[in-house]
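Example (one chain per record):
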Amino acid sequence: MFTLTSSSPQPVQARGFGFSAAFAAGASIPVGDMPQGIALTPDGARAYVANRGSDTVSVIDTVTDTVIATIPTGAGPTFVATSPDGTRAYVTINDGGLLSVIDTATNTIVANIAVGAGATVVALTPDGTRAYVTVQPADTVSVIDTATNTVTVTIPVPGGPNGLAITPDGTRAYVACLSSHTVSVIDTATNTVTATIGVGLVPILLTVTPDGTRVYVTNVGNSTVSVIDTATNTVTATVGVSAQPRFTAVSPDGSHAYVANAEPDTVGVIDTATNTVVENIDFGDGPTVVAFTPDGTHAYVTNTDADTVGVLATTVIPDQGSTAGGTTVTLTGRHLANATAVRFGTARAVITANTATSLTVTAPAGSGVVPVTVTTAGGTGTLGHFYYRPVPALTGISPAAGPVAGSDQAIVITGRNLAGALDVYLGPTRAVIQQVSDTQLTVRIPPDAGASGPGGVAVTVITPGGSAHGLSYAYLSPPTVTSVDPGTGPVTGGTQVTLTGTGLAAADQVTFNGTPATFAVISDTTVTATSPPSGTEGSVTVTVTGPGGTATGSFTYVSEPNV
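Predicted structure:
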């Protein structure tokens, strides 16, 4: 699967832009070391958490949000699934090569099924009669009969099978294959692979929407989510998300997909109607797997680096937007039918859709943090809070240039009101968000997502509060070195060398065999440098490095004549 480093526990984070209010129901529950997988029982009463670092499963009472049992397991518990009747929890034991079966009445392991080292993700058919387990090193998926707890079929699935999810009708299993950058489709009637779908780079985990029409696949290699239409088994959308996306969970009503972004410590929220990111929620430390309560009002998120499980209220989504108003917001709860008013603070929102469990509204203009209330014939209740974001502003970017082909270099953008950033663009190219604060963004341009040619482009940062512009970023062609003159000099160093080529004006380093040299930029075609001393004679590489890349020439060190 994936390995993350654990650290000491931290609380669930509050909003990072000047407000001290924490999340509604934002509990942070200490569990074992390196929690990864989490699954709730069908009634939502308990959550089972696989703690990979401490070889345990924590059992959380979701009423009190406390750990009520700790179950020892084999080495490397990774992922969890619960049976449809709630009587069993199934845990992959990655290092031990097992699928452990937990009796949820006694919270004890009642069976260990050998599937092979590297057991990663488990999913159950809707009727609970079979469990499917990916075994990544063996390029297989094991099928277990849950009545006998035996492996009945081993399905070859090449390409590093990792994530796995089964459609609600139980007819197909979708498998994310990380090394082949594909998703394999298994027909569960024949237990054979019937289709292979190309997705993004390094797909690791996936989920099927509650209605079975789409699969959301997290691609950690290029920080995207691929959306597969299950009717045609084709990718119909690719959604850019923040760095190191892990598991994606879809809300029970299917309206939003939640992506755990492990590097910036956020949970991204995708509107499944538009397949766009509508919110990035600051959350925990190393968020990894998201699991919803049956009513969709809360989600439990494993924070692998903090050794905790965070509880995220999902009753107001997105719960942040522009002070000018206009944000489309989904409210989730109970007894919401025939709502007569929704207010953000004292301002009235426009209701555009209404059912017994949800409301869609348009947020009014406002400022600060305000309660969101709903009024029906039964009275008025508070569903959560809404955070009004001020308009962002940009003040600087460093470095302000890079290679046309793109690179993995960190780019730091400074400004104001940047927290909660949804997207960053350098011209038409989406940059991947790595870290976020209210005054600073760190992004990277994937190596395969550069510009079509050299030149300056506008920098755009999009937050819930609006868009910010005013900075530029320059794409540079790689430099070249066509001559090194003179091409020889003494091993004692000190030779004044002229380097001739192209694209040298932005040079920020010159080295001789890796040793930095004193240099001066004369023009875009000329750089002068002083050769440093060398311990040996012979030909060495002279390297000129700049934002556009590197260029090389050669220089030969010779010894001084002696007797």
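Caption: The two ends are 65 Å apart (CA to CA).
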